């Protein structure tokens, strides 16, 4: 099985993949989350494992946007919660007050914002495509730069860990989702989750959003997450992402979604899947 993930080698996405699936898969590193999802949609990978939500910084916008705008060919079939511990890494031993720049993925920089303010206030903060790419860049740079990333990646790129556990909250967890080709169906026992996105409520009036969401409350369907993102069609127009408890096969869930379709011009199911499997078990 070939699984795409945000690369290069040494990212937290790769750590999550190995934790969830072990060594029985072939990892396919990609340059961006969008590329990982696209690779599945185009049939070049069986699955992708991409970051979806972080306990400190919230949803991963790149993933939401890729699924909403370019995800017609894929579906979410599972999830995996992965504890994340960030390390401050440099090419060689270096005093913090000598660090001129700190590189990492924007999500990771945000998850360590307080540490950076309090311990390296004079360093320039520079975004990178991934934490591993940041570490690889630092490994090749003679200037006193540092990166934030996984301690395992430090050894991979011949670097030195200056300090471990620099995330702002010690219980930092990232929720990853498994993405499969559209039409794939997950199977599994226990709790299920359904993720969807909707936009353009037909009747724009005070309380229109509450009215739409009430369709779930009326049927005792619990919403576990709701978030708005720009629809990219001018100011003041949004799409809404929802996670809810239960599979689409559940009668109350299906009825609530049908009712939502009557109130929103666009409703798309991003996936209906078992909660926290190690690797999806798909229906053949």
Could you characterize the architecture of this molecule?
- It contains nine helices and 15 strands.
- It has 284 residues and is α/β, with parallel strands linked by helices.
- Strand 1 (2-6), helix 1 and strand 2 form a beta-alpha-beta unit.
- The two termini are 14 Å apart.
N- to C-terminal distance: 14 Å
Give start-end ranges of low-pLDDT stretches.
none
What series of H and E elements makes up the topology?
Answer: EHEHEEHEEEHHEHEHEEEHEEHE
Q: Compute the CA-based radius of gyration.
A: 20 Å
Strand portion, in percent?
Answer: 25-35%
Fraction of helical residues: 25-40%
The largest sheet, given as strand count, sense and whether it forms a barrel, is:
6 strands, mixed
Helix and strand content put the structural class at: alpha/beta
Q: Specify the overall morphology.
A: globular
- Report the strand count: 15
The average pLDDT value, as a whole number, equals: 92
Number of helices: 9
């Amino acid at each position: 099985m070939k699984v795409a993930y945000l690369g290069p080698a040494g990212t937290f996405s790769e750590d999550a993949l190995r934790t969830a699936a072990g060594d029985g898969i072939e990892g396919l590193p990609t340059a961006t989350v969008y590329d990982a999802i696209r690779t599945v949609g185009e049939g070049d990978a069986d699955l992708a494992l991409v970051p979806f939500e972080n306990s400190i910084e919230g949803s991963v916008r790149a993933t939401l946007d890729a699924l909403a705008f370019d995800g017609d060919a894929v579906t979410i079939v599972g999830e995996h919660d992965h504890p994340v511990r960030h390390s401050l890494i440099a090419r060689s031993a270096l005093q913090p007050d000598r660090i001129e720049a700190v590189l990492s993925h924007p999500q990771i920089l945000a998850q360590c914002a307080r540490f950076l303010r309090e311990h390296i206030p004079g360093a320039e903060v520079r975004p990178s495509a991934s934490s591993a790419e940041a570490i690889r860049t630092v490994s090749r740079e003679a200037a006193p730069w540092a990166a934030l990333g996984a301690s395992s990646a430090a050894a991979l790129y011949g670097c030195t860990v200056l300090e471990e556990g620099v995330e702002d909250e010690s219980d930092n967890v990232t929720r990853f989702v498994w993405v499969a080709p559209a039409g794939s169906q997950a199977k599994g026992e226990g709790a299920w989750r359904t993720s969807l996105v909707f936009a353009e409520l037909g009747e724009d009036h005070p309380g229109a959003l509450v009215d739409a969401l009430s369709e779930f409350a009326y049927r005792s369907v619990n919403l576990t997450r709701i978030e708005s993102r720009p629809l990219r069609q001018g100011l003041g127009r949004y799409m809404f992402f929802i996670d809810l408890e239960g599979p689409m096969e559940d009668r109350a869930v299906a009825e609530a979604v049908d009712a939502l379709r009557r109130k929103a011009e666009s409703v798309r199911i991003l996936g209906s899947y078992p909660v926290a499997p190690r690797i999806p078990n798909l229906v053949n």
